[in-house]
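Entry 12.
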Amino acid sequence: MKRSEINSRLRRGLQFFDDMGFHLPPYARYRLADWQQCAAGAREIFDLQLGWDVTSFGSGDFEHTGLLLFTLRNGRPGSAQYPKPYAEKIMMVLPGQVTPCHFHWHKREDIINRGGGRLVIELYHADPRTNALCGGSFRIGVNGMERTLDSGDRVVLDPGDSIALEPVHAHRFYGDPASGPVLAGEVSMVNDDVNDNCFIDAVGRFDPVEEDAAPDLIPACDYARFITGGVN
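Predicted 3D structure (tokens):
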């Protein structure tokens, strides 16, 4: 993605969360000068990659394959310094915008529609030992109620609905094309985007960046480059 597009997408995301009445922490609005003034006290934010994230999963077509999110809290497995066993994210999912099919080897998570449009989740039975889909039926919890689904079935989440996913549940999700942008939440075990994502189609989690403009809001993956001098 071009830096100018990243800047534009993040500003749009900030406005969306404001419009939806979802209040982000103060550092969501920090520009580079703000970070330079408070970097010494922000070690947890840098170490745990809290903050903005925007990706097209290597597609170069964010509107159709992409995701914008903000990581609000996280921990680190086995860490005495960061012992939280949980994480939380808030996401903006556009109508028809796909997050590609993937599962996690370790993370269990709840996906929640917190407002806006309808969120469509396609679910597949996966085998984390072979990193592949295996078909067949499986059980899943939607709003605390158990359902039995077949691999490839869809669940549509209206505002207030939620679904509980385990590592055997590969998932692909997108905003209902007939509704508006979705304010989607994720509450999960500790999040590790580098080591705990298995994308079925081998897409990239992070995009290479073309630096055609100065950074505005700083994505978490760029803290080391622009703020901490190569150290996270």
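Annotation: Helices lie at 3-19, 32-38, 43-47, 223-226. The longest strand covers residues 119-127.
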